[in-house]
Amino acid sequence: MDESNKEAEALRAEMLDRLRRIQGHLAEDVAGAMSVVPRHVFVPQVSLERAYGAGPVVTHRDEQGVAISSASAAGTVAGMLEQAQVRPGHRVLEIGSGTGYNAALLAHLVGPSGAVTTIEYDTRVADAARHALSAYGAEHVNVITGDGTLGSVEDAPFDRILVTAGAWDIPSAWRDQLAPGGRLVLPLRLRGLTRVAAFERDGQALRSLSVAEDGFIPMQGIGAVAEQNVSIGPGPDLTLRVDDGQPMDYAALAQALDRAPSIVWTGVSAPWAWTENLDFWLATLPGFCRIFVDQDAVAAGRVPRPKDSWGGSWGVFSGGSVAYLTARRTGGSDDMPMLEAGACGFGPDGTKLARALADRVTSWKREADGIEITIEAWPKGDLPADHEAGALLVVDKAENTFAVQISERTASVKA
Question: pTM value?
Answer without folding.
Answer: 0.91
